[in-house]
Design goal:
mainly alpha; about 525 residues
Length: about 525
């Protein structure tokens, strides 16, 4: 039975006006139900894109470490998702968003909905879980090649279950004291963090900074085998640049779920328009950050060495740093501002990366410059570049906008600085004692011998790791043999060419014989012979 027939039965004898009102109410209810269902599907889709970023982090991290640590690195990235899911179920969601629909006023932390008890929007839960897992993964890459498995599991659970949720509650919950979604926001606007430059990336990046400061650098990075300081830090190259590039592109792709999906949670009248703006700004900022970082490093390298050399890793991390920076303002800025933010993000990344080396902090994947430094820049940039029209579309207000538009009104910019300060202080107060405790218990850093032979051999099993290393050795021998064969053929071809040249040339036999024994000829071939003898 259709809507009209149902209403005709319900309003029999009530007149046409009552019938039409019944039909209108029924259609409105059906439309709202379909709209809610569509919103849930879109949240699940965008959450899936955010979760797919775990694959990007895994590839990037695996490419940045040496072969002897690849399996261990991949396992830790897999456990990110597992640990985050369990921690977010038990404690994290309740602390971050528990009871936000039932409580009036500001609260420091959520107090209900633990273990998924109560009326919970499953699509919203899944979307927020994917964000929390991202914050944990940021730390994994920084501590690669020297962190024990037990320490990784413990800090993953603590970060996802308590530290991250408090930040998310403060800035994103309806009851957070810095949230823009409360009935009475701080300074009438609250903190604008559209998709998590501060909540996700600054939280994860600052945790990574504290962890590597307490854990220490990898063996041989800044000191020799006897503990003496090296004149120049030793660069520890990852084993696969291809994996790093693939991971970067996967992360860029997943970022569209990160930024565009956040538009669905604003309650805006035209969330599609806001999401489209976020997608364009995300693309422009990443492109600008990649180019600015690449060419700035090119210029600096030429100033140091006199040679022009392109650095792919700097280009990739410049793009990632710009993606982090544009995450906070992507739905509230104009396109030109996204380009400016991306260019500056590339500079911020390079400057912070070089500063870490100067103070001898070892970040295996440069996660601190990418996520922490550019997370701060993203929050500050929001306070500078947020335009009135875009803020009105996304948040429904244009009372306090970016400093460049406000004519002296710095309330939004002040709020953004307060958010940076709150996140840094909260993470420092929580994570420093935690990592110090892990270190005192002997659960934090891997044993020196384990680090030397590789964590794959220590944690993943002798047989499996040795088989992989044997495959690598066979591959190396095969490529080396092919290289020697090619060199031998080239040498024979050179001999043949020279013989033919001498045959056509009118040269006395004694002189021709002497030319074949030329010292230049012997010196040119000696490296090949020595390499063959060494093989």
């Amino acid at each position: 039975m259709g809507v009209f027939e149902d209403c005709a039965v319900q309003t029999e004898g009530g007149g046409h006006d009552l019938l039409l009102q019944c039909v209108a109410d029924a259609l409105d209810a059906a439309f709202e139900e379909q709209e809610g269902s569509l919103l849930s599907w879109l949240l699940v889709l965008c959450g899936g894109l955010v979760f797919f970023m775990q694959a990007g982090f895994a590839m990037l991290c695996a490419g940045c470490v040496r072969k002897k640590n690849v399996q261990n690195s991949m396992l830790k990235n897999l456990l990110d998702a597992c640990g985050a899911a369990l921690a977010f179920l038990t404690l994290g969601y309740g602390f971050a968003f528990g009871g936000q629909g039932d409580t009036v006023g500001m609260t420091f932390i959520g107090k209900t909905d633990f273990f998924s008890k109560g009326e919970i929007d499953q699509a919203f839960w899944f979307f927020q879980f994917a964000f929390s897992a991202t914050a944990v993964t940021i730390v994994a890459g920084t501590l690669a090649e020297r962190c024990q498995m037990v320490a990784y599991l413990l800090y993953s659970f603590f970060l996802t279950g308590f530290v991250y949720p408090v930040v998310a509650h403060a800035i994103w919950s309806n009851n957070g004291f810095l949230s823009a979604f409360t009935a009475e926001p701080f300074n009438d606007i609250g903190v604008v963090d559209f998709a998590g430059s501060g909540v996700v990336h600054l939280t994860g990046g600052s945790t990574a900074l504290i962890a590597t400061w307490i854990l220490g650098a990898r063996k041989g990075r800044f000191h020799d085998d006897r503990g003496r300081l090296l004149p120049e830090p030793r660069t520890i190259h990852g084993h696969s640049m291809a994996l790093q590039l693939m991971g970067t592109m996967v992360l860029w792709f997943g970022w569209y779920g990160f930024n565009c999906g956040s538009a669905l949670l604003l309650g805006a009248d035209d969330s599609g328009k806001v999401g489209a703006l976020a997608a364009v700004n995300t693309s422009l900022a990443a492109a600008a950050g990649c180019v600015s970082s690449l060419f700035l490093e090119l210029y600096l390298h030429e100033r140091r060495t006199g040679e022009y050399t392109f650095d792919l890793s700097k280009a990739m991390n410049g793009a990632l740093g710009a993606l982090v920076a544009v995450t906070a303002p992507c739905g509230t800025i104009e396109n030109w501002a996204a380009v400016v933010i991306g260019v500056i993000a590339g500079f911020v990344y390079l400057g912070c990366s070089k500063l870490l080396i100067k103070v001898r902090l070892d970040d295996a994947v440069d996660a601190i410059p990418v996520h922490m430094a550019n997370g701060m820049w993203g929050l500050i940039a929001t306070g500078l570049f947020t335009s009135p029209g875009r803020l009105l579309d996304a948040y429904g207000t244009d009372v306090h906008v970016g400093w460049f538009y406000s004519g002296g009104d710095a309330k939004l910019l002040l709020n953004q600085f307060l958010a940076v300060g709150f996140i840094l202080i909260w993470v420092f107060v929580m994570m420093v004692p935690f990592f110090v405790w892990l270190n005192m218990m002997g659960w934090f850093r891997a044993d020196s011998l384990e680090e030397l032979v590789g964590l794959d051999l220590s944690y993943m099993g002798t047989r499996q790791s040795l088989l992989m290393q044997a495959d690598d050795d066979i591959s190396d021998v095969g490529s080396h043999g092919a290289s020697l064969t090619r060199q031998k053929r080239e040498t024979e071809q050179e001999d043949l060419s020279e013989t033919e040249s001498l045959a056509h040339e009118k040269v006395p036999p004694e002189q021709a014989k002497e030319r074949r024994r030329s010292p230049m000829r012997i010196r040119a071939r000696s490296p090949e012979r020595s390499e063959t003898s060494m093989a």
